[in-house]
Design a protein that fits this description.
Elements (H helix, E strand, L loop, with lengths): L1 E6 L10 H4 L6 H21 L4 E6 L16 E4 L18 E7 L18 E6 L2 E2 L2 H11 L4 E7 H10 L4 E10 L2 E4 L2 H17 L13 E7 L2 H7 L6 E4 L2 E6 L2 H15 L4
Parallel strand pairs: 1-2, 1-4, 2-3, 4-7, 7-8
Antiparallel strand pairs: 5-6, 5-10, 8-9, 10-12, 11-12
Helix pairs in contact: 2-5, 6-7
Length: 272
């Protein structure tokens, strides 16, 4: 069995503030260690129930967070950016299942460190009238390759959001959100044990979860935090400005949608 892991940091136990998540944050290196060890717990769980190959994609920020030398030696690591598929780089039909570690809620919802891809740029992302956060958008990419997302870890509200897409998804709640930058966290050792056991259960019953998908054609709307961001993205020939803060485009391919969303956000970021 081949297992794919997409690893973010905001949903890791003990991570609650931009000092943890930002590249120049004073506590970033400590958060990187916490992230690495939660990923290791997932890897160990997968290997204990027979996984033959485990590929990890570092999916946070610069995508250079996981300590490679500290990662389980039986895994492979996709490290660095840019990536065409960003948080889902490396996913393919060769994988039997995907697991998401350290995930968080979408922008504007309750949940620790909530945002959607870039909290300084994006207010919301919709496909066919449904608002998705990172979990839903990344699960759609996995579904394109017929890979089910069978497990997610993060705060209690991130799990609830994941269940809105995949009701029977396996999960491990490693912290309870109090507000955007405060949480009740499990001890790291306890969090890792939950993730390991949750991973094992998920893989043993992976066939019970179907790949996540929505039917084409797709109408995508990206709402930005201020008009200057939309001004820049409106330059792109494939988008239409439908409201002061919002651009839209159409596609029949979910991978094209995902890449255009990511490209729009990156271009919007150039507005300053």
């Amino acid at each position: 069995m081949n297992i794919y892991i997409s690893a973010d940091i905001e949903g890791v136990s003990g991570v609650v503030h931009s000092e943890h998540t930002s590249r120049d944050g004073k506590e970033h290196d400590y958060a990187r260690l916490l992230m690495t060890e939660e990923v290791n717990a997932c890897i160990v769980g997968a290997l204990e129930v027979g996984a033959k190959r485990v590929v990890v994609n570092d999916s946070h920020g610069t995508m250079r967070n996981i300590y490679h030398e500290k990662l389980h030696p039986k895994s492979e690591l996709i490290l660095g950016s840019p990536k065409k598929l960003a948080m889902m780089e490396g996913i393919s039909s060769e994988f039997d299942a995907a697991l998401f570690i350290g995930y968080h809620t979408k922008m504007g919802q309750n949940g620790i460190l909530n945002h959607t891809f870039n909290g300084k740029i994006v207010k919301s992302i919709e496909i066919n009238g449904i608002e998705f956060g990172e979990f839903g958008l990344n699960a759609l990419v996995a579904g394109y390759f017929n890979v089910p997302v069978i497990f997610v870890s993060g705060c209690n509200l991130a799990i609830k959001e994941a269940e809105e897409c995949i009701p029977n998804i396996n999960h491990s709640i490693v912290k309870q959100t109090i507000n955007r930058t405060t949480a009740l966290n499990l001890h790291p050792v306890e969090a890792r044990e939950l993730i390991k056991e949750g991973t094992k259960k998920a893989i043993l019953h992976y066939e019970q979860i179907k790949p996540f998908s929505i039917e084409p054609p797709y109408t995508v709307k990206v709402e930005f935090l201020h008009t200057g961001l939309a001004d820049v993205v409106e330059i792109l020939p494939f988008v239409k400005r439908i409201e002061p803060l919002t651009i839209s485009f159409n596609s029949n391919d979910i991978i094209e949608c995902y890449r255009l969303i990511r490209s729009s956000i990156m271009l919007g970021g150039s507005a300053g």
